[in-house]
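Kindly inspect what follows.
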Amino acid sequence: METILASAPSKFTSFHSLSQRFSLAFPENRRRKNLVNLKGASLSYLSLRVKANSQAASASTEATKVGSVPSEMKAWVYGEYGGVDVLKFDEKVSVPQVKEDQVLIKVVAAALNPVDAKRRQGKFKATDSPLPTVPGYDVAGVVVKVGSQVKEFKEGDEVYGDINEKALEEPKQFGSFAEYTAVEENLLALKPKNLDFVQAAGLPLAIETAYEGLERTGFSAGKSILVLNGSGGVGSLVIQLAKQVFGASIVAATSGTRNLELLKSLGADLAIDYTKENIEDLPEKFDVVYDAIGQCDRAVKVVKEGGAVVALTGAVTPPGFRFVVTSNGAVLKKLNPYLESGKVKPVVDPKGPFPFSQVVEAFSYIETNRATGKVVIYPIP
């Protein structure tokens, strides 16, 4: 397994002029302290990981021992939109306040999604929360504080979820790439018992997107589906949900040559090498095409008349449609039995997890669009 290690930058930009609501400061010449580096560690994360390893189990034990909550935390922040160079590390970010319907989570692992990069680039600044921003949607961690109206969770509970109900509509200013994050209880679920924090962190946004997309198409038992980019974060879960939860008759999926066996292991009946085969030349058409790569113009040519095409990215060609996922802890709870039974498995990119010191490198990697499954950040101090 290749381990990616990079030296951390030693200087940080001043953010004193930015929003006082965030209470951030980046003194010049402050060097990073207490960042975790995986060099020499014995972590070995395969693409498909079902059983928690001893280090992740240890993280769980340590996290549950968290006592008093500090007023400041370590976090990654950007105060302007742009490339990965706008990401800065700060050790004195204010810990978010907990509202009545929220819990405070001590973050153990967090995951990157394409939306994190697009948000940082300013692709939907008109509906974004104020800058500066702590990025991060997906989280897995331990509840350390509960709001007065919280009924479902208690301190010490191991939970996971997508912290933003609406991905593009005023997502939280305090995201999951930090030691703590505050989340509404209805967006969370208890972490599946058989999954470690790394596996759990990579699931929420992707599995909720996969599930909602299938529901919106009216997918049901006996129907066929073609998944474009079946080895990606969403596509890998669409394959499994279509087969295990919805009862698909045939699941076909595309990927590059190196991931064909992965597609088959996830349940694809037909694994298509997009570098060698043209989906438009396939002899059959499908009830649903789930386009997770941005090829809607091609997808609509292989869907049956009256069928549906989901387009997650790129231009939409009728009858294709696009939706923005709504985060909902109830979906995670519904799918937890499938995860705990092993019928649905998380897929974690083998280059990861990236340590907290390498969030910049993780962003750069996900923006290559070559990740397999999910890119996870772990451990978080």
